[in-house]
Amino acid sequence: MCDHFPLYRGNLEYFCLGCDARFDINELLYTCPTCGSVLLLEDKNFSLLGRKSGKEWQEIFDGRAACKIDALRGIFRFYELIAPVLDEEDIIYLGEGNTPIIKANQELQKEIGLRFAIKNEGQNPSASFKDRGMACAFSYLQALARRHNREEILTICASTGDTSASAALYASYLGGAVKSVVLLPQGKVTPQQLGQPLGNGATVIELPGVFDDCMKVVENLSRNYRVALLNSKNAWRILGQESYAYELAGWRNWDMRKLCVFVPIGNAGNITAILNGFLKLRALDIIDGLPRIFGVQSAHADPIFQYYNRGRDFAPVQVRPSVAQAAMIGNPVSFPRVRRLVELYCRRYVPQAGEKAFQVVQVTEQEIMDCMLMANRHGHIVCTQGGETLAGLRVALRHALIGPDEFAVLNSTAHALKFAGFQQLYFEDAFPPEYEITPGRDLKNAPLSIFSADRKASLPEEEYIEQAARAVAATLGLKSR
User: Fold this and answer.
1) Taking the model in full, what pTM does it have?
2) pLDDT digits (tens, 9 = 90+) for 291-321
3) Full residue range of the structural domain in which residue 311 is found
4) How many domains does the chain divide into?
């Protein structure tokens, strides 16, 4: 049933992953004022949710799937687990969340060698998963502005494309005193992704360098000026992105047995949220076990792979060009969150699994592009990050990290159309050498030209139609009736 807004209110506070200090949420914090480490948000009243059984929570969340109250649709269907300090009037809903999970067809599953599905995050409003976090972050900003009578809010973010598109969309929806500024690495964002914040009226500033350079500038601005930072350093964004885990669990009828979840790492905010989301579900017995989590990184930007596979000593890496642009980050902001949550995750997993509960695999740029096209050849619309997770599944199978009786869900973080330019480079064999991508003959595609414009102009219309039809039939090898 869903006929009223929940009565439950949490008691959220920031806590620091570096020194364990805790801070009130009446101010927007990004890092610990004491030691500078990243923060997470925690509900001090969370144990009160345990008064309901896991089965009761399942029924509540399942029932809200048909809810007509906007503030309980999308990610806030799971209100009590996300940001239960927000009032109904502050919650923003633009259609985010509830993205489809599409099972791969039999031919593709046979080709890969495992049963799997793809959760298509490209069907969020701005065509990426970032909308989950922005819905929560902007709802909190709206609540903060109302409580403190703030007349103007300037939001700012660094981005490789998706974050800026999402931030600009939500800021433009709120309108009025809310303005959006985005910093992009010059020449490192696709035209489609650049067009989104421009279309929503954001101020777009291009800086030389890569995402990490833009992020450093944004961090400086957030320390020294009155701006609202909207990158995943913002802990409110992490809360919203936890909804991915809740939706996936519900789709599985809350049964996590034999489930493996593949997630591109990038700035590590999404995998942080997914880990934390499953941990919350387990703590309330909404699920009776945890799925195995596989993080995926390109060899061109793989600091977390290096940490977990080549000695536990974290060091940023110098990134090289990657088609998985959202993953092209050499110093992920949320790595401390991942490290903390992975320790919790592995301890709470079935004892025999141990560190196999969380693993990181490395893929090549060639594998990313090949897998993106392979998936889309079989009826999906995955982005390059979706290609990255499919490539990660293949690597996991190749190294026997996943069993034949398991089921995988792959996170495709954005819409394929955002990366149409990379597809065209592949088809035209035009990738610069630093990408290390050579098109596979069986995956290339191009339009066929079988009738010239001059020839068409020289013929009467009926004759042109007849000759064009014969040319098409000959090209396709069609047989006459």
Assistant:
1) 0.94
2) 999 999 999 999 999 999 988 899 999 999 9
3) 101-125+241-435
4) 2
